[in-house]
Automatic annotation (TrEMBL):
Name of this protein: Bifunctional coenzyme A synthase-like protein
Top-level taxon in the UniProt lineage: Eukaryota
UniProt keyword annotations, A-Z: ATP-binding, Nucleotide-binding
Pfam entry (one): CoaE
Keyword ATP-binding in record: yes
Organism of provenance: Callithrix jacchus
One annotated GO biological process: coenzyme A biosynthetic process
GO terms for MF: ATP binding; dephospho-CoA kinase activity; pantetheine-phosphate adenylyltransferase activity
């Protein structure tokens, strides 16, 4: 459906509300269990308009050429099919503009790990004092 905007919209109009409902239920359950941080791994969170479900948006960005290379390698698609998939998503600039934290996986994994750990530590400082025992 990535190459057909009309078909993609039909699919997302069906699936996104269901997925959002399931995410809300999981987060509600986590809160009742005493959890203070929930992570939603949703590639299309901003496209779906789910910003109201979360307090912060963390985004991982890489150059488009690298994204195409990874899609081709991971999914066995052609360059054109990978490019079509990317064009159905928000641009990196749009994602960055709407995000609270921006990370990159362009470098070695240990560098990305340090980025995430630093962002997590800063999040802990932003949490109310009663929730900082999460580490």
């Amino acid at each position: 459906v990535f190459g057909n905007k009309k078909q993609l919209k039909i699919l997302t109009d069906i699936m996104w509300p269901i997925i959002a409902k399931l995410a809300r239920e999981e987060m509600d359950r986590a809160v009742t269990e005493g959890k203070h941080v929930c992570v939603i791994d949703a590639a299309m969170l901003l496209e779906a308009g789910w910003q109201n479900l979360v307090h912060e948006v963390w985004t991982v960005v890489i150059p488009e050429t690298e994204a195409v290379r990874r899609i081709v390698e991971r999914d066995g698609l052609s360059d054109a099919a990978a490019q079509s998939r990317l064009q159905s998503q928000m641009s990196g600039q749009q994602l960055v503009e709407q995000s609270h934290v921006v990370l990159s996986t362009l470098w070695e994994p240990h560098i990305t790990q340090r980025q995430v750990e630093k962002a997590w530590a800063l999040l802990q400082k932003r949490l109310p004092k009663t929730h900082q025992a999460l580490n």
